[in-house]
């Protein structure tokens, strides 16, 4: 693999300013740098001055297969744009860490990705927001390769069970209420089950 | 003689036992991993693990602990660490002794060698000719994936990740 391809295989953007720099500078590049990017990591963008920026960035990354958001807001229009096929249809790995957005947005984001294979969510509580029933449910096309949940992901477990998410590999924090539902959903397909006994984040030791 | 209530005479308050979970058969399950924070599995962890119906395809059970787990500190005051919920886990494992190998990290397996408790550790499983493999300590459970998800290790060390810093 060429050096440039390797250098740009995975990029991280840790502020809206850096995202804007990427959007402004890279499209003018004629070497196709954006097409080298297979993974993008957004970190610490707790609010967007221009909420359209995330969508515009993803739209410019035609080879993107891995999306990673850490403490970063996912604007509501992004899952809608993905659902409409504007971009991101090739994303197979979604990692959401400490999301400062509502449960409905997270669930919409997950459901918008038709070829999702790996889903990892770690949270210290998720804001419930609007009821989930207002969001259209699209059936999962096939089992995930990996579903990993840690911390306080209350609400998400119920949503994933409601939408019958199944996975070949499950890695679950045992203190997360309701994980039995997810194990049950995947009972016919699960080949690997990891039970994580750590109680960190919003889950108190008393709940052990 | 009138005594104190149990929770006074027995020291620390009794743990709240969570309600038993109900799990369906997992016919395709080949690999099970559990990670511990202490020598003593939590009621919730033991509850879920032992409620998995015995599955004939299960080939590997890895019992790990977190890299920051301090065995020496944790073991203080525990005369018989491998009793209680370990007995439940042992009985559960013994049902699959014919086909499942149990892997233990060296620290977890080695500590009790000079203690009477070691002789009883996974006794039923060993009695049923179950195989135990001791693995190196560097193979202990590292939950970086749990904290940070796919690939955060490259965030700080520049391992293939380009940090955008154009201006």
How would you describe this protein?
The complex is a heterodimer of chains A (208) and B (167). Chain A has helices at residues 3-7, 16-25, 33-36, 52-59, 77-83, 103-112, 156-162, 179-185; strands spanning 10-13, 39-43, 66-70, 93-97, 118-124, 146-152, 169-173, 192-196. Chain A has 208 residues and is an alpha/beta fold. In chain A, strand 3 (66-70), helix 5 and strand 4 (93-97) form a beta-alpha-beta unit. Chain B has a domain at 28-69 and 79-143. Helices cover 31% and strands 15% of the residues of chain B. Chain B has a four-stranded parallel beta sheet. In chain B, helix 2 links the parallel strand 1 (31-36) and strand 2. The N and C termini of chain B lie far apart (81 Å). Classes of the chains: A alpha/beta (208), B alpha/beta (167). At the A-B interface, strand 1, helix 2, strand 2, strand 3 and strand 4 of A face strand 1, helix 2, helix 8 and strand 5 of B.
Broad shape of chain B: globular
Mean pLDDT of chain B: 67
Q: In the CATH hierarchy, what is the superfamily of chain A?
A: Ribonuclease Inhibitor
| Number of strand elements of chain B | 5
Helix-strand pattern of chain B, N to C?
A: HEHEHHEHHHEHHE
Please count the beta strands of chain A (DSSP E, at least 2 residues each): 8
- How many helix segments of chain A? 8
Q: In angstroms, what separates the terminal alpha carbons of chain B?
A: 81 Å
Strand order of the largest sheet of chain A: 1-2-3-4-5-6-7-8
What is the architecture of chain A at the second tier of CATH?
Alpha-Beta Horseshoe
- Output the strand order for the largest sheet of chain B: 1-2-3-4
Radius of gyration of chain B: 20 Å
Largest interface: A-B, 53 and 47 residues
What is the terminal-to-terminal distance of chain A? 48 Å
